[in-house]
Each structure stands twice: as C-alpha cells, then as structure tokens.
Amino acid sequence: MSLEHLSTADIISAPLETLSRALPARVTFSRNVFVPVTNICRNACGYCGFRRDIGDAEAQLMAPVEVEIVLRQAKEADCTEALLTFGERPYEVDGFVEKLRRLGYESFLDYLYDLCTMAIRVGLLPHSNPGILTFDELERLKPVNASMGLMLETTASVDAHQGCAGKEPELRLWTIEDAGKLHIPFTTGLLIGIGENWDDRIRSLELLTELQHKYRHLQEVIIQPFMPKPGTRMADVSSPSREALLRTVALARHLLPDDVAVQVPPNLTEVAPLLGVGASDLGGISTVTVDYINPERAWPDLADLGIALTERLPIYPQYVRAGWYSEALAPLIGALADERGLRRKTKDETRDG
Fold first, then answer.
1. Does residue 250 form part of some domain?
2. Which of 50, 97, 100, 144 lies at a C-alpha separation of 20 to 30 Å from 213?
3. What is the DSSP string of 163-231?
4. 195: containing domain
C-alpha cells in the first residue's frame, strides 16, 4: 500500500516500514537564544521541571539588564531569534506583582512588550511564548513579535494537568484561534506521553487542521516527547517509545495541511528516523543558552547531525513573503531575510544554497 493511500488507522497500526517517505527537500531550523524571563507560573503541571514556587530560592524574574546581556551575547553569536519564555500568567501568583514593581512595572504585559522592543533594538526577532492570552493581549504584542507560540499539548483531560487553570484545551484553542484572526504567524504542538491516547492525538491534530484551513497562520506543529523530571509528580513515568513518536510524526504529516511544518526537537529525539516519516524542521537551536525546559538535554552540534540544514527566521518564509509583520519589524526582517524569506546567507557552512 502506498503512503498516500494509508488511512489514519493504518498509520497507527501498520508496519513501521510502510510509513517511510522521501526525505524532505529542505530541513530547517532557527538559530535562537532561550530567554527564561520568569519560571513563576500559575499552573503546576505534573511533568514540569521549569516552574518554581514564588518562595523558592530558584524562582526568578529576570531584570532588563540581565535580559539585555543575554540578547547581546546572542547577537554576537549570529542568532536571529529571541525565544522569550515564561510561566503562564505569573501575575496571578501571590507575590509576583511585588517583584515586577521592583523592576518599575505594574503590568507584566508592559514588561514583555518592552523586552520585545529591546530584542528588536539589539537586532533579534522576538518569538514570545507567554501561555494563554486574550485577543486584546495578542493584539498588543503582535507588532513586536515576528511570531508567537502556545503548545496545545493535548485536547484530552489528563491527570498531568490537574489543577492547572491554563491547561483547559478550550482556552488554549481559543488563544490559537485568536492568533489566526490577528494574522500572527504561530507555533503550536503536541506533548506526547502525558496520559493521552491515540484518539486524543488524532483529535488534537484534526482541530489544528481545522484552524489552519480557516486562518492559515500555523507555521509549524511540534511533536515533542514527554521527558520525566526528578522531583515532579511524573518523575517515574517513562518517555513515549520510539515507535509511538514515529507514528505520531507520521500522523501529523498525514493530517496537517502541507503548508504546516512538522517540527521535532533535536535535543530530545533521534532526528533522522523522524525526517523519514514526515518531519522537516528542528526548531530553535541555541549556541548561547541551554534548553531551560529540558536543561539536562544539550543542544546538538549542527555539524554532528549529518544533515544538510537551511536556516530560517522565527517567522516562516511564506509569512515573510506575504508581509505578515509590522512596520516595527520590517527593517530587521528586510536585513535578515533573503528573497525566499529564509535567513540571508552568511559564511556559516551549515546553511545551504
């Protein structure tokens, strides 16, 4: 049976060798810096090793000077993307606003906006992942973000999300849809192995497909495996199997429209087999900072991957060409993008022609 004629049920159950497809013509990545603005979060997911209680010695809210130092290091390292990551709606946690006030701010949204403008001034394109946002909040941040993101994770109700107000699937889907209404190039994804089943994965991908057909704003869907973290409620839960990950990537490529890239994180997965079943993007890779969500998993050396890579910006090329960005971002995107909407070539040998 040819790959084109496989059904959803086939992808879940057929022999793995039947899922193989031609390698993608282009495998992309973004050269980024990971800026963990705050690890204080209103949610307490069972798998998260990033979040800290506000009274914890490791709880942090980065000051502007700390952020600027990291951004300038990234610019020197030839990065193009500032990945701004946070705990979700941290200002709902008692004591956070006091920390924010010590930085001279009353509103966390104002602070994020200013950090984005700082990144642009330094020469980096912001990509913010602040969690659930309202339409008005997205609209405020759109002019200073090249793209934005929110992991859907799953449409299932799972124990891992028990007591987490921001992990209600409907809320996350509303945020993703509002981003579509606003023409924000958007990244989302599934977290595999947190208690969902195959029907849940199919449902999640089908809903994202519906949104893409309606708004055409989803540039990539990440298929990310759960990784157990010491000290969390799910510390003893195993990561999903290699087979489950292969089938989920194949399922995503089967269900999602062709203009949505399937992304896999190269520090959490073996890349080559996943490229053979439908993945085509490796996400952001940093030479400046660790992956603060999975700090135990080092970024790979690009040369060691043995794959011809094409560097992109945090805004995908089709959105560069279509002009889905603000006047505030136009000069920087014009300087960084080539005529295809990809990263303008430098001397780095990892970039193709």
1. yes
2. 144
3. T-GGG-HHHHHHHHHHHHHTT--EEEEEEETSS--HHHHHHHHHHHHHHHHHH--EEEEEEEE----TT
4. 25-336
